[in-house]
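no rush on this but wanted to send it before i forget. theres a chain ive been looking at and ive put its sequence and its fold in token form underneath. please have a look and point out which stretches look like helix strand or loop to you. thanks a lot i owe you, the record is right below:
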Amino acid sequence: MHIEGNLITQVQLEQIIAMAKPCNLKGARLYGANLAGANLKDANLEGANLKGVNLCGANLEGTNLKGANLAGANLKDANLAGAYLKDANLEGANLKDAYLKGARLYGVNLCGAYLKDANLEGVNLKGVNLKGVNLCGANLEGANLKGAYLKDANLEGVNLKDANLAWVNLDWVNLAGANLTGANLEGVNLKGVNLEGAKGIMSLSIPGMSSRGDILYVVNHAGCLMVKFGYFYGDREAFEQHVQDNYGSGKQGILYAAVIQLLHVWGTARE
């Protein structure tokens, strides 16, 4: 059945889904419909209005959702493997525990989406708007986040192993406990980022180094080491200059000098 652009009732929708697959719901207006647990594998939902729709546990594997409006939709536990989501609107959608491996998300709006514990392994999120998104505990191993907008996002405990974060906006992002092993951080400013307990980076807490109790973090950057300490963020050479300009040969200066020597040793071991 082809219902392109039509407004249909819940009963009609259930009948369509029960028919031979894949079903064609292109442009359908399904605002607020209940599709929990529905099998929509390979369905055509291009341009459909799915605002506020309940898709909890639904099978959307390989589904065409290009340009679909999924704002505020419930996609908890949904299977979106290989789904085509180009230009889809997922603002404020609940994607907790959703499976998105292989999903095509180019141009997707995920602003404020809830992606806690979602599986996004290897997903292409290049340039995607993820402002304020909750990705706590999500799996983003090997994902491409180049140029993505993540301001104010919660990435606590996220697996970013081997992920591409080049030139990502990470203003005030929470990366506490995140795995950054092998991540590409070229052009990334970690000045205001929470790195407490993050893996794949070196952290030093030396009594007397800072009256505020700041922890010094050392991150593998593209071809160099980057140092984050309090409000300072820069490469090793810039950190040395920062120490000379601000601490000289005093007690704290001596402590910093020892840390700088350690950074030299670590940097040499990496070369």
